[in-house]
């Protein structure tokens, strides 16, 4: 029996994906659904290895490629994402496929056919090739277009201090203390901004490296940040993201 795991942080999307797989391949066994990097790593370390993993690229606690740095991964993978920000050519390796959400039944059917027609023994090599391809092909956003009065103004990303999700959308704070409302989500921006310069601190904030003037160890493994220009709410790196933050901040 072929087993599979779903890694998806949106419950409706996970349920829909499982339903479509059950329609196409009722003999496949779903081992479960994981909604974060942390829960996926815990599952893979504690359970039998699935033959196939459906993996959303953008999870609530980061980019899912991080998982491959934490566990030895032997399953074949079909990546899913709502954002076509990764060069599709980068996914042209034997044990890996790539689908845009919302998942199309015919495209999923074709992906499963390809999965069944090939061996997944070379996956460890393939994921290294995939990440290398993405690093070579991916280009990051240099500017963000804003509307000011009746003018369209391109703002260089090097002038951004931080971006924060608020009730009415995303606010972009500049080093000059100017604020702008922009028509992007933080998930979109996280994948479009150079991770060497920007870090997704938590669900609500992406910070530029130069805006962080102090990082202090906090209770329960968290890290408290002091950012300039100052942000109204307390900025805390969760315990789950603390190790990644230390690696990024010290690089």
In words, what does this structure look like?
The chain is an alpha/beta fold and 251 residues long. The protein has two domains: 3-137, Response regulator (Rossmann fold, 3-Layer(aba) Sandwich); 143-249, Beta Barrel (OB fold (Dihydrolipoamide Acetyltransferase, E2P)), CATH 2.40.50.1020. The protein has helices spanning 11-24, 37-46, 67-70, 105-116, 123-137, 186-192, 239-249, and strands spanning 3-7, 29-34, 52-56, 58-59, 62-63, 76-81, 96-100, 143-148, 151-156, 160-166, 169-174, 179-182, 198-200, 205-208, 212-217, 223-227, 235-237. The longest helix has 15 residues, at 123-137. The mean pLDDT is 86.
Keywords for this entry:
Rossmann fold; alpha/beta; OB fold (Dihydrolipoamide Acetyltransferase, E2P); five-stranded parallel sheet; 29% helix; 2 domains; globular; 251 residues
Roughly what is the average pLDDT, rounded to an integer? 86
Q: How many domains would you count in the coordinates?
A: 2
CATH class of the largest domain: Alpha Beta
Helix percentage range: 25-40%
What is the strand and helix layout of this fold?
Blueprint: E1 3-7, H1 11-24, E2 29-34, H2 37-46, E3 52-56, E4 58-59, E5 62-63, H3 67-70, E6 76-81, E7 96-100, H4 105-116, H5 123-137, E8 143-148, E9 151-156, E10 160-166, E11 169-174, E12 179-182, H6 186-192, E13 198-200, E14 205-208, E15 212-217, E16 223-227, E17 235-237, H7 239-249
Parallel strand pairs: 1-2, 1-3, 3-6, 6-7
Antiparallel strand pairs: 4-5, 8-9, 10-11, 10-14, 11-12, 13-14, 15-16, 16-17
């Amino acid at each position: 029996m072929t087993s599979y795991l779903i890694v998806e942080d949106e419950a409706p999307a996970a349920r829909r994906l499982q339903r479509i797989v059950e329609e196409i391949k009722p003999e496949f066994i779903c081992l479960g659904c994981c909604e974060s990097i942390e829960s996926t790593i815990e599952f893979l370390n504690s359970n039998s290895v699935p033959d196939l993993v459906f993996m959303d690229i953008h999870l609530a606690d980061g980019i899912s490629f991080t998982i491959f740095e934490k566990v030895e991964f032997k399953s074949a993978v079909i990546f899913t994402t709502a954002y076509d920000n990764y060069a599709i050519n980068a996914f042209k390796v034997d044990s890996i496929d790539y689908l845009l959400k919302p998942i199309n039944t015919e495209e999923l059917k074709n992906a499963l056919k390809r999965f069944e027609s090939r061996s997944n023994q070379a996956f460890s090599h393939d994921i290294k090739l995939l990440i290398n391809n993405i690093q070579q092909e991916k280009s990051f956003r240099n500017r963000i277009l804003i509307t000011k009065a009746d003018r369209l103004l391109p703002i260089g990303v090097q002038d951004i201090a931080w971006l924060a999700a608020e009730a009415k959308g995303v606010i972009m704070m500049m080093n000059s203390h100017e604020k702008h409302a922009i028509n992007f989500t933080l998930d979109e921006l996280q994948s479009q901004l150079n991770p060497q310069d920007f870090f997704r601190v938590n669900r609500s904030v992406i910070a530029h490296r130069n805006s962080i003037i102090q990082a202090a160890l906090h209770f329960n493994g968290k890290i408290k940040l002091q950012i300039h220009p100052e942000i109204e709410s307390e900025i805390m790196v969760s315990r789950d993201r603390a190790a990644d933050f230390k690696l990024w901040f010290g690089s």
